[in-house]
TrEMBL record:
It comes from Linum tenue. Residues 137-474 form the Exostosin GT47 domain. The lineage of its organism: Eukaryota, Viridiplantae, Streptophyta, Embryophyta, Tracheophyta. GO terms for molecular function: glycosyltransferase activity. It comes from the Eukaryota. It is a single-pass type II membrane protein. Residues 563-575 have a biased composition (Basic and acidic residues). This is Exostosin GT47 domain-containing protein.
Length: 600
């Protein structure tokens, strides 16, 4: 009875119907008080059950921060502070639908630590391979697309269609090196020399890639992705006598195939590269006019993201890069390279300078005619005329023999900026003389030193064209000891200017293929790091000044005025030579005609 009175004193603020009945009726008071106590106890048990079982289960064991997951919303973090339950005035249990409604208006709370977490990118795994010191291929993996055969091998099966004048079938043999050259006159080595077509890089490069020591089938590890499309062979089939739809068909087909691949979506193709063994102008048709030259591969939006390696690049575009023309020498062993270099050092060179080439009477800006005149009029010069009546100019043996006998080899522009002859001459240990920076210095920045004075001589075209400067006098002023140093530098460059036998691999030397692949990897790696850091490689990048950026010194981020600006002041749509895209067509035709004469 005393205990019951204590219970009623603990709830003075609550007036229940049962208490009013007790005052009005003294009978059965003890039973009613027992009922009241039971209901009160039941109420508190229900309240404690709600706090510790229902809410406690949602907080995951009573943590201070609870995670509430809705079916329609992602997880959100809610700060909750639940004190030890203390009896308070409670009218009724809140209905559960109201709890759900309260949860829906909660906004996510982003902590400072979450804000500082770095963004993740799909190429992060490839970048992390560099950190694995036990992986010799870390940061060097290449993934090769398995293209349908119509983009490569089928062209070789139809090799007779690759040239209008020349049967290219023999030049695609031996992994693209062509038939072996006989060393009848003792000009070559006994092994490693082939009659290689100057436009055969497509096949040579793809076959060298098969021997690359860090290929991977996992594209997420790749530092770069190779597209084995024979772009040069494709356009060579249709340069003459075909409409623009036919010329563009394979390029459009390729881009369509690539853009459907998951590898493309990682960087929209900016980690992809391909090789075309022709000059860039063959892939830069400026209009949809049927009479315009080439196809529009390099103007396709998707192709602009890729890196295209060509034997001559455009100084005004950022998506192509120059790689060396193939020479006749494709060593299979390091010893072959060492032996050739030693031989070039010991040669007696009886000519101060030499030139192998033909005049360009139809091009008023060409200085070839003046160069030929100076060679004829000098007792220290040697000329190998490459007109239609002179077959020796198209004989690898005759050309290499003249270069091996000369201290300097003249390399003026032809129909376009570049010449295969420049690489043949350096292979012979002959110091090249250039008359336009676009012939080498802005072209092959991956393979040639930035300081061009260490291995070559530069004589501006205007010194010959306008001032009739004497080449003999200019070269004679170079001290013999300086000539010796320059020749040694040229000979040391030989390994990185040649393509090793695609069926083997050099052990200590890096050939032209190795240098190009590493340059692509470095380019893609820089791009990926810049994306992560939210920065660009250059400030105020201007694509029409693309030729300048590779010449910048370490730390420079903007290309300003350059002494070579006058050489590249032509409008973007113009080519070299006579300043029109038509000169590209003539260069291509002449090159294939040369191969025809060489075959005869």
């Amino acid at each position: 009875m005393g205990d019951l009175k204590i219970l009623t004193r603990r709830r003075p603020a609550i007036t229940s119907p049962f208490e009013q009945m007790d005052k009005g009726n003294g009978k059965n008071q003890q039973n009613r008080l027992c009922l009241l106590a039971s209901l009160s106890a039941f109420f508190w048990i229900l309240l404690l059950y709600f706090h510790f079982v229902v809410l406690g289960g949602r907080t995951g064991g009573g943590d201070e921060s609870s995670t509430v997951r809705l079916q329609s919303n992602p997880p959100v973090v809610v700060e909750s502070r639940i004190p030890v339950p203390v009896p308070v005035r409670v009218v009724e249990e809140p209905p559960r639908p109201k709890i759900a409604a309260a949860e829906e208006v909660i906004t996510p709370h982003v902590t400072e630590q979450q804000q500082q977490q770095p963004k993740t990118f799909p190429f992060m795994r490839a970048l992390r391979t560099v950190q694995n010191k036990t992986d010799r291929c870390g940061g060097r993996y290449i993934y090769v697309h398995d293209l349908p055969s119509r983009f490569n091998d089928d062209m070789l099966k139809e090799c007779r269609s690759l040239s209008l004048w020349t049967n290219m079938c023999k030049f695609t043999t031996n992994a693209g090196m062509g038939p072996p050259l006989e060393n009848v006159e003792g000009v070559f080595s006994n092994t490693g020399w082939y009659a290689t077509n100057q436009f055969a890089v497509d096949v040579i490069f793809s076959n060298r890639m098969k021997q690359y020591d860090c290929l991977t089938n996992d594209s997420s590890l790749a530092a770069a992705i190779f597209v084995p499309f024979y772009a040069g062979f494709d356009i060579a089939r249709y340069l003459w006598g075909y409409n623009i739809s036919r010329r563009d068909a394979a390029s459009l087909d390729l881009v369509d195939w690539l853009m459907k691949r998951p590898e493309w979506k990682i960087m929209q193709g900016r980690d992809h590269f391909l090789v075309a063994g022709r000059i860039t102008w063959d892939f830069r048709r400026l209009s949809e006019e049927e009479g315009d030259w080439g196809n529009k591969l390099l103007f396709l939006p998707a192709a602009k993201n890729m890196s295209m390696l060509v034997v001559e690049s455009s100084p005004w575009n950022a998506n192509d890069f120059g790689i060396p023309y193939p020479t006749y020498f494709h060593p299979a062993k390091d010893a072959d390279v060492f032996a050739w270099q030693d031989r070039m050092r010991k040669l007696e060179r009886k000519y101060l300078f030499s030139f192998a080439g033909a005049p360009r009477p139809g091009n008023p800006k060409s200085i070839r005619g003046q160069i030929i005149d100076q060679c004829r009029g000098s007792e220290l010069g040697k000329l190998l005329e490459c007109d239609f009546g002179e077959s020796k100019c198209h004989s690898p043996s005759s050309i290499m023999q003249m270069f091996q006998s000369s201290h300097f080899c003249l390399q003026p522009q032809g129909d376009s900026y570049t010449r295969r002859s420049a690489f043949d001459s350096m292979l012979a240990g002959c110091i090249p003389v250039f008359f336009h920076p676009g012939s080498a210095y802005t072209q092959y920045t991956w393979h040639l030193p930035k300081n061009f004075t260490t291995y070559s001589v530069f004589i501006p075209e205007d010194d010959i064209r306008l001032r009739n400067g004497s080449i003999e006098e200019r070269l004679s002023q170079i001290p013999p000891e300086q000539v010796q140093i320059m020749r040694e530098n040229v000979i040391n460059l030989i390994p990185q200017l040649i393509y090793a036998d695609p069926r083997s691999k050099l052990e200590t030397f890096k050939d032209a293929f190795d240098v190009a692949v590493q340059a692509v990897i470095d380019k893609v790696t820089r791009l990926r790091k810049n994306i992560i850091e939210g920065r660009t490689e250059y400030d105020n990048f201007v694509e029409e000044n693309s030729w300048k950026y590779a010449l910048l010194e370490e730390g420079q981020r903007e290309a300003g005025w350059h002494e070579w600006d006058p050489f590249f002041s032509k409008p973007k749509g113009e080519s070299a030579g006579d300043g029109s895209t038509g000169s590209s067509a003539e260069a291509a035709k002449n090159s294939w005609k040369n191969e025809q004469r060489d075959q005869k």
